[in-house]
Amino acid sequence: MNGRADFQEPNAEVPRPIPYIGADYIPTEEERRVFAECNDESFWFRSVPLAATSMLITQGLISK
């Protein structure tokens, strides 16, 4: 011991730095496919149910 505390595990992995992705980044076809799939799923499974629920609640409150 050299008098300072070592808080790192002996076999811990050192995290890799996140690469910089700038405006000049061009996604691969696989990444484009994943982006399109995520956009489609977020629309149908998040946006539509939230909008429909909000619409029904608003309609119910207005009709009272």
Task: Looking at this protein, list some descriptive labels.
64 residues; mainly alpha; 1 helix; elongated
Structure characterization notes:
- The chain is mainly alpha-helical and 64 residues long.
- Helix content is 55%, strand content 0%.
- The protein contains one helix and no strands.
- The chain has one helix at residues 29-63.
- It is elongated and about 70 Å long.
Radius of gyration: 24 Å
Biggest sheet record? none
Summarize the helix and strand pattern as letters.
H
Strand content: under 5%
Number of strands: 0
* Average pLDDT rating: 86
Number of helices: 1
Helix content: 40-55%
Distance between the termini: 74 Å
**What gross morphology would you assign?**
elongated
**Any low-confidence stretches, pLDDT <50, length ≥5?**
none
Question: Which SSEs are present, and which pair or pack?
Answer:
Elements: H1 29-63
What's this, in brief?
With 64 residues, the protein is mostly helical.
